[in-house]
Amino acid sequence: MKTALKLLFAAIFLWMTVLTIRTSLAASLWSAWDSYAANPWAVATLYDAYFGFITFWVWVAYKESTLWSRVLWLVLILCLGNIAMSLYVLIQLFRLKPEQSLEALFRR
């Protein structure tokens, strides 16, 4: 199961990184903002994403022991979204010792 999760979150990390770079090269976020902000579904999706980011960050804040790392991950998650979130999970998965179960992932 750990290997499957590593593959899943590595795929999310790579897919979102490539997609973000490709999209940024096609159109900047700032140039697309007016048309994006005019679409109510786009705005609702943006709120949904950021509430999800905050929800995920609550777990990160629980896991991290220092204020500095909590703030750093908050900034990364708010700026990079699923790229940062998948990276965080990958780091946590690779930190698990072979004898540790996935339950250890959710503990401090």
Give the N-terminus to C-terminus distance in angstroms: 20 Å
User: Got a strand count?
Assistant: 0
> How many alpha or pi helices?
5
Order of helices and strands: HHHHH
Give helix % range. Answer: over 70%
Q: Sheet bearing the most strands, described? A: none
Overall outline: globular
CA-based gyration radius: 16 Å
Q: How many structural domains in the coordinates?
A: 1
Roughly what fraction of the amino acids lie in strands? under 5%
Query: What is the quaternary state of this protein?
Result: single chain
Question: Which class best fits the helix and strand makeup?
Answer: mainly alpha
Mean of residue pLDDT values: 94
The poorly predicted ranges are none
Features:
about 110 residues, mainly alpha
Structural write-up:
Helix 3 packs antiparallel against helix 4. The chain has five helices and no strands. It has one domain (2-106). It is globular, with a radius of gyration of 16 Å. By secondary structure, the protein is mainly α.
Overview in brief:
Helices cover 80% and strands 0% of the residues. Helix 1 packs antiparallel against helix 5, helix 3 packs antiparallel against helix 4 and helix 4 packs across helix 5.
Question: Helices, strands, pairings?
Answer:
Blueprint: H1 2-26, H2 29-37, H3 40-63, H4 67-80, H5 82-95
Helix pairs in contact: 1-5, 3-4, 4-5
